[in-house]
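Researcher: Predict the fold of Enoyl-[acyl-carrier-protein] reductase [NADH].
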Amino acid sequence: MYNLLKGKKGIIFGALNEDSIAWKVAERAHEEGATFVLTNAPIAMRMGEINKLAANTGSEIIPADATVMEDLENLVEKSMEILGGKIDFVLHSIGMSINVRKGRHYTESNYDFTHKGFDVSALSFHRVMNVLYKKNAMSEWGSIVALTYMAAQRVFPDYNDMADNKAYLESIARSFGYFFGRDHKVRVNTISQSPTPTTAGSGVKGFGGFLSYAEKMSPLGNATALECADYTLTLFSDLTRKVTLQNLYHDGGFSNMGISDVIMDSFMEGKE
Ligand SMILES: NC(=O)c1ccc[n+]([C@@H]2O[C@H](COP(=O)([O-])OP(=O)(O)OC[C@H]3O[C@@H](n4cnc5c(N)ncnc54)[C@H](O)[C@@H]3O)[C@@H](O)[C@H]2O)c1
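Model: Structure tokens for Enoyl-[acyl-carrier-protein] reductase [NADH] follow.
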């Protein structure tokens, strides 16, 4: 442990169960000396798992649907009361596509589903920053991070409309990040994470194949949820103060690969 976040206060969205990337971020942030509020959609809390995380990290839970402005306003106000001041870090770890869930093919999108998925997965990031900005809730040199996936840049057919949502999310990070940097010295970045076995990840069709392909393509192998948490903490720490408006790949090198020996070998059988 490095005491990287000693004395820092945060809000962590998206811890659903112990597989969640946000869950690992919360555990690691606690170990590094941070205090924070946990939040998730009221419906996601019915399973009650988040209570365990709250107990283990000494955190309070404030339910908020990230598509509802009043919920977010209440969350930010209460968090500042509970934590006793402005917020140093925020993690947006939220994603959901009804088209994916219902197995709708991308070319046959149900646009009501598309709207809802966009609202939850992309626009919610704008809403969160809007509330933080308006309420002047972030400390100077604070840090806001959202999680994304490389389907925003390259085609992964089964990622469906989440690819478009992630492209929009990454753009919001840059656009809002400009104003947050200029006016409040707050940095805003996205982390583009390897495929990771979580509830959201496993919902993508053919996820198992996806996971092993990426593993074999990446020189360092896939990054785990815990490793993603470690990387996220560096962005919350004071060691990365001038990193902003970036989409940062945390994927074992996958994003810059063309082909790896292992993948090549699987195509060479019987060819030489
Ligand atoms: N798992 C992967 O392969 C992978 C890869 C790259 C990026 N990501 C991203 O990481 C983030 C976290 O996902 P995860 O993999 O930990 O899965 P997860 O299912 O554990 O987390 C998704 C979270 O979004 C929350 N959520 C859904 N609707 C909400 C709403 N209306 N308001 C507030 N919260 C809501 C869920 O309750 C859940 O906690 C997502 O943005 C996801 O797209 C995941």
